Structures are given as C-alpha cells and as structure tokens.
Amino acid sequence: MENIGIITIHRIFNYGSVFQAYALQQVCEDLGYRTEIIDYRYPNVQHQNNRFATMGDSQSNEPKWIKYLFAKALLRQHKGISNFVYRYQHLSPITYNSPEELKKNPPQYDVYITGSDQLWNPRHCNGDPAFLLHFAPDDALKISYAASIGMRNIPLELYTLYKELLDRYKHISVRENSGINVIRDITGMEAKAVLDPTLLLDKDEWNKIAVPKRLIKKKYILCYYLNYTFNAFPYVDDLTAYMQKQTGYEIVHVARPPHKLVYGHTWYRVGASPEEFLALVRDAEMILTTSFHGTAFALNYGKPLFTVVQDRNASDSRQVSLMHNLNLDAQVLSVKDAFPDKSLFSYDVGEEQIRLLALRKKSRQFLIDALRDE
After folding, report:
1. How many domains does the chain have?
2. What secondary structure letter does DSSP report for 111?
3. How confident is the model at residue 94 (pLDDT cuts 50, 70, 90)?
4. Please, which pLDDT band fits residue 60 given cuts at 50, 70 and 90?
C-alpha cells in the first residue's frame, strides 16, 4: 500500500478548511492508499508581513461590541473545530511550524499532494514554498488536487519560485477555471479544473458526520456570510430581510457574528460545531452565502441557493467558476445587483445534481489517474 502525504490548510477555525482536508484524505483512503495530512501550521512566520495581502483584500466592519457578545459562541465553535480535527483528520506525527522545518526534516511518502484551498494564492499564503512541495524529494510523485490560485496572474516577484517548483509536479489540477491559464503561462502544462474535495463526497457521506437530529424545528434560510475576501455588508443583511419577507421563513445565521442584531424569527448559531453546521445545511430550505464552501455544501445537499460575490464577471472567482460549470449563473449575485425575483428562489435541483455527479466522477477520475501516474 502506497503512502500519501497531503499538505493543505487543515486546522484553522473555518469549516471549509477542515472539511476539504478531511474530504481529500477520505477519498484517498477509499481508493486504498495510506494517507496522512502533514501537520503544517498555518499561519506561521512565512505568512507575516505579507506584501501581497492588500491586493484586493477588504477589512471587516464588524462592530466590536457584537464580537464581545458572541465571544463564548466563537469559543464553542473553535473547540468544536479542534475536536473535529482530532477525531477525523489523520495527522503526521511531527508538527511543522515553518517552511524551513519541513525542508530540514521532510516527512517521507510515496506520493505528495498539494491539497485544495487557496494554497497558491499569494494574498493568503505569501508565496509559501511549502504549499508548492519544496520539501519533497525530486524523484517523488507530486500532484496538486484543486489548488486555488484566486488570481489571474502570479506577481512577478514570485514567478521564478512558482515556475521552479511547479515544474516538478507530474499532475496539476486547480479549483477555478482561470487557474488553468495561470498554470499554462508559468509551466506550459495543461492543468485540469476539478471539484473541491468537499464535493467529492456526496450528502450520504457527509451525513455520517452530521448531527442526526434537526436543530431548528421551523423552516429556515441558512445565512453563511464571511468577509475574508470582500465585505458584502450591508448588501447581504438587506438581502436576508428581503428573502425573509418573501418566504416567511426563519433566518439562521452561522459561523460569524452578525454585523447587526435582528430580533424575531432570527436564530444565531455562531457556536455550531462542524457536525452541527452540516445538519444546519441539510435541514435548510435555502442557503444564502458569500462563502465558497457554503456554496459547495448547499450544492452537495441539493439546496436552492444564492451565492454572493464581489464581481459576478470575475473569471478568478471560485464561486462564479463552480456555479457556471453547473449552469447556475442566475444564482450568483454581486453586491451591486438588484435582489432576485421570486421565480429564482427555486429551480431544477435534479438537473443540478446530474451535472454535479458528472463533474464528481470526472474529478475523482483525475485523482485516480494521477495517483496511478497515468
């Protein structure tokens, strides 16, 4: 049995990060490989003073008093995420705290995989060579699975580094369509666009982890709003109020403290564990989200959704790319758009699931072929 080592962002306090790491590990193990996630801590010294971080990033205007109000809930959420990592992720016995530590004492595997998430996005990772497998032996098989670049071009200062290390990969796949062009420009290789690992496991697989009981008895819209990449407020707050008025459903906020408190028919589940988050998606009538992984899990569970982006015409948007591949462009909103007509609140989820299944099979096949080095 061959050994696989996966490097990714796997233990920050973010549902999507821990889920995508677990999912890729699980798929590799289902294919018969012994798999570990390299316990590489992010962020570390490599990611301090990131000169690329201002390139399109936005600052949160989350009121401090609301953060304090939800402090205990956030602590509960963080404990739940840490417990999830401990229960479900198979970590390397050594923890690494910098690229230099990895280079000095690299873990030994037959295959090295750069996993998903925004590992190749300089805005997030500052050109971290560890996520480009700088520590892996020259003769080892190197693969990327759904690595996200999130930019249309790599900054010139990083071009030589990226080319030198990407040229060592045998098989490259990316998460958004625009990444194909970036890889071609740097290496001349034809990368493949594949699904995020969370979409390789269907809802039956995720339900093995999800809390079995329903957490909110009434019908509700689940709102999963993040502001790491751009600030969607107050647009999404106004969108939430509009959707509630149109449907009469309860509103459930998850993951982050709200930007303003709303009373009456509104629930706050900021402290939800990963297992509870899955249950909240599973039992929702509809999903509103600014999150890529919020979008992914709505699709996995076949829930009608609207995903909000900064610019619906951005070719480097992970959500835009995914929704376009599923022929769901009408469910993408930008913060400058008018609110959607009620006719878009539901659509043929069956057709969506057929397309998703086809993409899932194609993406799994990429991984199968890459691991066989075909």
Report:
1. 2
2. E
3. very high
4. low
